[in-house]
Amino acid sequence: MTTTAPETGKRARRGGVMSSAGLYLATSVAALLFLVPFYLIVRNALSTDPEITGENWKFFPADIQWGNLTEPFDDPTVDFGRSMWNSLVVGVLHTAGTLFVCSLAGYALARIPYRHADKVFYAVLVTLMVPAAVTFVPSFVLVSSLGWVDSYRGLIVPGLFSGFTCFLFRQYFLGFPRELEEAARVDGLGYWGAYWRVVVPNSLNFFAAIATITFINGWNAFLWPLVIGQDPSAWTVQVALSSYMTNQTVNYHLIFMATAISILPLLFVFLFLQRWLVQGIAQTGIKG
């Protein structure tokens, strides 16, 4: 018995509806799982320590502790406000410097004709295979010899170049329309002029995407700031958070409240740049 065309169309529609429903269900479950850690942070930040560690779990505390909001800034042992400022300065300057250095390197590898360009590019890729821990000791010795310990220079300069970011910029610039650069050279611009006046203004989406990822990584950095920021005045927010947990005491609600506050700048950056982040990742051009 043959199946008529209308019946086939109905089955196809039903299959499409079921597929869409399954996709939405899977996406909803994934979103809920993603939000669980943030719920726990907010819930515990507004609770007392007995409510956090008690056996009787409540979805939300019966008596919300709004006073916990100011406790990280009132703690005399840790200058949390200063650590937030240090992280902001380091994050912004590190992001700006990385974009400038790596975009120039990526543009040079993609556009400037040089017979050893491929060898230089392969050398950059080799740096991706070297564990970061291997370079910690020589980097610290160099920074210490320059007198950059407990300074913004020591926190920022050693991490300005990223082999992976350089790789992404090179791949993106390989797919950038050459016609725009050729028109710029007809007008008398060199490589620098074409890069600064033509390439950068037409690549803001990609720059914004890389800036978002770089800022988040810089804000969340812990080991290098811990090594360089030996004085509490040079601590970043991640180092300050670690100081709330000692061998003697663990102030749970203070840790969660400070964590919630430290997430706010990242949340703002992500919400503000999420459209450019998605577009930029789609334009990475990892091909060819």
Structure description:
The structure is a single chain. The chain has 288 residues and is mostly helical. It is 69% helix and 0% strand. It has 14 helices and no strands. The chain has helices spanning 5-45, 49-53, 71-74, 80-111, 117-127, 136-145, 152-156, 163-174, 178-186, 191-199, 204-220, 223-228, 237-242, 252-282. α5 (117-127) packs across α8 (163-174). It is globular.
Largest sheet: none
What oligomerization state is this entry in?
Answer: single chain
Number of discrete helical segments: 14
- Please compute the radius of gyration using only Cα atoms: 25 Å
Helix percentage: 55-70%
User: Any idea what the shape is?
Assistant: globular
Please mark out the parts with pLDDT under 50 across 5 or more consecutive residues, or reply none.
Answer: none
> Secondary-structure element order, as H and E?
HHHHHHHHHHHHHH
Strand percentage, roughly? under 5%
Q: Compute the separation of the termini in Å.
A: 52 Å
Number of strands: 0
Family: Belongs to the binding-protein-dependent transport system permease family.
Main location: membrane
Keywords: Cell membrane, Membrane, Transmembrane, Transmembrane helix, Transport
Protein name: Carbohydrate ABC transporter permease
Please summarize what this structure is.
Residues 84-273 form the ABC transmembrane type-1 domain. With 288 residues, this protein is mainly alpha-helical.
